[in-house]
Amino acid sequence: MSKAEKYRIYLLLVFVMLSWGFNVIATKIIVSSFPTITITSIRVFTAALSVFIILSFLNKVRLPSKNELRYILIAGFFNVVCHHYFLSIGLSQTSASNGGLILGLSPILTTIVAFLFLKNKITFVKFLGILLGFTGVTFIVVIGSGGGISSISFGDIYVFLSIFTQAFSFVLIKKISNSLDPRLMTGYMLLFGSIILFIIGLFKEPGGLEGIPHASFDFWMIFLASAVISTALGHMIYNSAIGKVGVTESAIFINLNPFFALIGAVLFLDEKISSTQLIGFLFILFGVLFGSGALEEYLHQLKLKKKHVFIDKAKNV
To answer: What is the pLDDT averaged over residues 89-110?
Structure first.
């Protein structure tokens, strides 16, 4: 791969993180305007349709096998139903800045779940990263609330549950990724999850569809940007980048997600960023770098490159 192509992928990853960070703001606006679960199900369904339309042009659409369907249903339950259910409710009860920062823990939680279910090794550096990450959340959720444990927002807890259930689903996606294209699996999971969320909405939010057709033009622009750009296109670009530059290099860019969420909260929602949130952000930033294994892998790759350069020079002498 040429340097120009690699830099192009890096720019696309920055764009994805920008869209994901701002998507926290978009989701906050969406769930604050209409019944939370109902509007979320419609947004996720729109994202699913977008994925299938894009993949149809790439000739990547096919029916899953029975074994693949089993993984799609289970992973879809955790990755879409639980994740979007908890996230939408959480963002309706907490600030967008808090939600964006807590979402930054995703790589760390994925490391923990991989250790528990895939028996992945946790080194001292990763363990240190996990401690740093959760220290950051403590600053944001407990200290930032000003009242200690008793004043923790349930919204923050729901956001945390949303990324924990999503991290658990990554184990299932990993197990089936060799058989089924992750991008196609994403489309099926979004489709299945949107249907289940809609059914839940019918029971928990009777009449939830009323008023949605009369939403403003600005609302639908935010809705489409969230569904098509952030949820559908964003995940497809990210999954494609993993296949080209690797999991580790792609994961490093996730550190930009909470940063853009903070900027979006200030620009679009006029939220004030406290010193406590900034301290928490720094803890989470270094926690993700250490805990996800990104730093270790990056240093290892640098060491290998230096070794190859040294060998090449020795051959030329």
So the answer is: 78
What is the Cα–Cα distance from 38 to 209, expressed in whole angstroms?
Answer: 7
Question: What are the angstrom distances between the C-alpha of 39 and each of 19, 200, 213, 247, 260?
Answer: 19, 12, 11, 32, 24
Q: Is the whole model's pTM more than 0.70, yes or no?
A: yes
Given a contact cutoff of 8 angstroms between Cβ atoms, the answer to whether 189 and 239 are in contact is no
Question: Tokens 């808090």 map to which residue?
Answer: 98
300-305's contacts with Cβ under 8 Å and 24+ in sequence apart are 301/248
CB distance 264 to 22 below 8 Å: yes
Place of tokens 């299938």: 52
HSE of 284, CA atoms in CB hemisphere, 13 A: 29
Dihedral sign from CA coordinates of 37, 43, 47, 49: positive
CB 228, CB 48: distance < 8 Å: no
Q: Where are the alpha helices (DSSP H) in 95-216?
A: 96-103, 106-117, 124-138, 154-176, 182-204
